[in-house]
Amino acid sequence: MTLLEVSGLSVRRADGHELVRDLSLTLGPGERLGLIGESGSGKSLTALAVMGLLPAGMTAHGSVLLDGTQVIGAADRRLDRVRGRAAGVVFQEPLTALDPLMRVGRQIAGPLHRRRGLRGAPLRAAVLDALAEVRLPERVARAYPHELSGGQRQRVAIAMALACEPGVLIADEPTTALDVTVQAEILALLDGLVAGRGMALLFISHDLAVVADVADRVAVLENGSLVESGRTRDIVREPRHAYTGSLVGSARALEGELDRLVP
């Protein structure tokens, strides 16, 4: 069973310039795929194309199947039936994903109501359960996003992404804006939630050491093109492409984390 199937995906600007070229990847239940590359390599555009959320002036070509539903060219009403249910997404900066004028509890309640039809006391209880699952206290439900720390906001974003019980979780640089200690906490939280729910994970990052700790497989993007893919351990041990080799070398030099993960 394939939850996400991307075939020949290209993303183009209005002037015809390709920002992502002929990308193909698949993701099945419980699988963890890391999509890695430098800034501007097309990672986040891929995530937006998968969700049908490309900004104005950009178009997607090829095929993206989410739980059997074709995303490219689909009407918004059809996409609304698979967004959240088939795939949820956690973005890099939660302040851009959360409504600054709405209390956190109401923002989590929205997808819970749409997915499960909850109202009243059952809905309030489900909101508190969602907060508890990401290790946030009940008082956070009454807070506005600006009243929370960066780590707390990202936990709220994770709770919202999981509210509709998606088969695939897309995490797009979810820890980049956080300090090192909070990064580790968020990564551990994601790991536990994904494992506990049996979800597939598409983890997007520029940090190979982080990806190696999270993902079983890796796909490497350079300037919008897939240059290498395979099992994480195999690629870290013996990168075949020069660009992948440079990423491995940089990770080893900066952190030494790969030496612990892949002796």
Describe what you observe in this structure.
A hairpin with a 2-residue loop joins strand 9 and strand 10 (225-231). The model has no long low-confidence stretch (mean pLDDT 91). This protein has 11 helices and 10 strands. It has 263 residues and is an alpha/beta fold.
Shape: globular
Q: Give the overall average pLDDT.
A: 91
* CATH homologous superfamily identity: P-loop containing nucleotide triphosphate hydrolases
**Quaternary organisation:** single chain
Q: What is the count of helical runs?
A: 11
Main pleated sheet:
6 strands, mixed
Give the SSE map.
Elements lengths: L3 E10 L4 E10 L4 E5 L6 H9 L6 E9 L2 E2 L5 H7 L4 E4 L3 H4 L6 H13 L3 H14 L16 H13 L5 E5 L7 H18 L2 E6 L2 H7 L2 E6 L2 E7 H6 L4 H13 L2 H5 L2
Parallel strand pairs: 3-8, 3-9, 6-7, 7-8
Antiparallel strand pairs: 1-2, 1-4, 4-5, 9-10
Helix pairs in contact: 4-5, 6-7
Quick synopsis:
The chain has 263 residues and is of the alpha/beta class. The protein contains 11 helices and 10 strands.
